[in-house]
Amino acid sequence: MKAIGEALRGFLERRGAPERMRLVRLWENWDMVMGVDIAVLAYPLGHRKRILLVGAEDNMAMQDLTFLTPEILERVNAFMDDVSDGPYFERVEVHLLQRRTPLDEVRVTRGAPPPRVPPRPDNLGGLLGAFDPESPVARAYASYVRMFREIGDAAVKPGDAGRDGRDRRDGRDGPNGRK
Question: How far is CA 146 from CA 49, 52, 106, 130, in A?
């Protein structure tokens, strides 16, 4: 029986993970691989089979990169260091960026959204004595009331009555704004 690590490694290798990781390393190190002169003009856009896709900001840069494609190809293939089947990429295509995001740019990852505070019900706790204290419904309701007491004023909706019974917008009493 194989260890899970070995089975997972074999599965990922059959799916092409090592090749994709090498490409990720290329995108992450694009500036170093291209050098300062080429990196300011060339942006990595991806690949299609054995064709490297490079982006340019405008037509002038695109023209310069067209002349630099042999050097780009040489540098990228040297970085990829794949001599088993010949060069990793066979040719370079230069395209205008046109609002595409280059692969070498830093990606901003979104964190978890802040916890959502539910709105505080108007008659919270009014049913605490209405149920058999041993029933699951009474315990669930008591837990619900306790949750709102722990989060406090954060659960008050704008315009609804707060803990002191005053409307937060205009100072009138009660949830309906009665004086």
Answer: 59, 60, 44, 16
| 166 CB neighbour count, 10 Å cutoff | 14
- Residue 52 to residue 78: CA distance in whole angstroms: 14
Q: What is the mean pLDDT of residues 140-168?
A: 65
DSSP for 7-57? HHHHHHHHTTHHHHHHHHHHHHTHHHHHHHHHHTT-EEEEEETTEEEEEES
Q: Count CA atoms within 13 Å of residue 70 on its CB side.
A: 1
DSSP class per residue in 134-170: TSHHHHHHHHHHHHHHHHGGGGPPTTSB-TTSBBTTT
Please state at what angle helix 17-28 crosses helix 59-80, rounded to 10 degrees.
Answer: 130
- CA-based R_g, the chain, Å: 31
Structure tokens at 141: 């309701």
Query: Pick from 73, 108, 78, 104: which is nearest to 90 by CA?
Result: 73
Can you tell me which residue has the tokens 């540098």? 75
The percent of residues in the chain predicted with pLDDT above 90, rounded, is 25
- Backbone angles phi and psi of 51, in degrees to 5: -115, 125
CA 125 to chain centre: 40
- In the predicted model, what is the mean pLDDT of residues 16-21? 72
